[in-house]
Design a protein that fits this description.
FMN; EC 2.7.1.26; 175 residues; riboflavin kinase; 6 strands; Elongation Factor Tu (Ef-tu), domain 3; alpha+beta; six-stranded antiparallel β-sheet; flavoprotein; Riboflavin_kinase_bac/euk
Length: 175
């Protein structure tokens, strides 16, 4: 199991588990940098708001950038892109003190969350497909462009997914 997760083979991990690899927790405040980053990104007028989950362990079974489904904020799962790791482009002493953080951006931010987002809510994030390892960007502009590309790649992953997969996810969420 750990080998599949470390290799980013989320399909093999899901096969072994009987469901996608999932991380749950309370949404906590971050630096709100995602909102600022997107001011210069085309098509991201509301920013790259994220739902942040912090962890005390230093070495997660999986790390990188993933296409995800977020449960607990709406009647159906929300599609998103997430970074699971230590954010190498930012100061390691920033907010999370170099610890592992799961930052999830919903591709279609739910309007009912408003500017306060999901703070304090318990969410469940399914890591469906690894897009790539964490990258260290040389500037905030490069980071912004990287996040925009990750969002495009996650949208492409979901567009290529079968309707049966989407129905299975939605049905399981209601059970």
């Amino acid at each position: 199991m750990r080998a599949a997760l470390a290799a980013g083979d989320m399909a093999a991990a899901a096969q072994m588990l009987g469901h996608p690899y999932t991380i749950s927790g309370h949404v906590v405040h971050g630096r709100k940098l995602g909102r600022q980053l997107a001011e210069s990104a085309p098509g991201a007028s509301d920013g790259f708001r994220t739902l942040n989950l912090r962890f005390n362990h230093w070495k997660p079974a999986a790390s990188g950038i993933f296409a995800v489904l977020v449960h607990g904020l709406a009647d159906t799962p929300l599609r998103g892109v997430a970074n699971l790791g230590v954010r190498p482009s930012l100061d390691p002493e920033d907010v999370n003190g170099g610890r592992v953080l799961l930052e999830t951006h919903c591709l279609d931010w739910p309007a009912h969350l408003g500017p306060q987002g999901g703070y304090g809510k318990i969410i469940r994030v399914e890591l469906l497909h690894k897009l790539h390892d964490e990258l260290k960007y040389d500037s905030l502009d490069a980071l912004t462009a990287g996040i925009a590309k990750d969002c495009d790649d996650a949208r492409a992953f979901f567009a290529a997914s079968t309707h049966a997969e989407t129905r299975r996810q939605t049905t399981r969420d209601r059970i």
